[in-house]
Amino acid sequence: MELQHSLWGHLPLLLQSSSWESVEYILQALWRTRRTGLDDTDRKIIREMLGLSSDSDLDPLVLCLRILMRKCVYENICKDEIHKLFPKEVLPELQRCLTLLLQKFQQEWREDAHKDMVSLPRLKAMTWNMANQSVDATDPFAIINLKLQDDTRSLSGEAEVKFQLSKDTLGTMLNSLYLIRDQLSNPDDTSNEQEQPDQAGTA
């Protein structure tokens, strides 16, 4: 709690911006980079807006604003109560400006936060190759490489997953995929939903 109170003293740096539109840009940039942090370009732009010479001057302000934004978005605070987030030592002009901006974006940011929680990566590409193909091999298997895309991440959200499949486990997987295909074709029919048992020898 003491840390948060000490950070409020950095909010007046926002008054060094040329306009409240600049403050709005800063808040939007912080929200856009909520998962990744500000990159060098964002930091340079914001420092120039506020006339700051180094990141050491910027970082406490960024931390204070992020705490404020998280409270506004993730805590049970309605639009008309946002002004109560500020202690008395914050200048009335700053309170008024930040309150209006947080009220403006609260619903949009909450919707984004909800999407962050429910969005799953999607399959972007799939490749495979055979392994263990020697003449004496008694248990050949395929290496499957899945490339996944996470659209909720600001930077490149690509990830790769590799796994191996034997003939038996491939059969189990195909059966499951056929059931999924049928379910997607007829979503009202839940009779196809079932859990496939583990197969002995699964890699």
What's the quick description here?
InterPro entries: COMM, COMMD9. Helices cover 47% and strands 13% of the residues.
Order of helices and strands: HHHHHEEEH
What is the number of independent domains? 3
Q: Low-confidence runs (pLDDT<50, min 5 residues)?
A: 196-203
The portion of residues forming beta strands comes to 5-15%
Mean pLDDT: 83
Determine the fraction of residues in helical runs and give it as a percent range: 40-55%
Order of strands across the main sheet:
1-2-3
Tell me the major beta sheet.
Answer: 3 strands, antiparallel
Strand tally is 3
By secondary-structure content and strand pairing, the structural class works out as: alpha+beta
Radius of gyration over all CA atoms, rounded: 26 Å
What does this structure look like?
The chain is α+β, with helices and mostly antiparallel strands and about 200 residues long. The chain folds into three domains: about 1-115, no CATH class; about 120-165, no CATH class; about 170-203, no CATH class. The protein is built from six helices and three strands, in the order αααααβββα. Strands 1-2-3 form a three-stranded antiparallel sheet. A hairpin with an 8-residue loop joins strand 2 and strand 3. Helix 2 (about 20-30) packs parallel to helix 5 and helix 4 (about 55-75) crosses helix 5 (about 90-120). The longest helix is centred in the middle third of the chain and has 27 residues, at about 90-120. Residues about 195-203 have low confidence and may be disordered. It holds the Pfam family COMM_domain. InterPro entries: COMM (IPR017920), COMMD9 (IPR037360). This is Protein FAR1-RELATED SEQUENCE 3. It comes from Dendrobium catenatum.
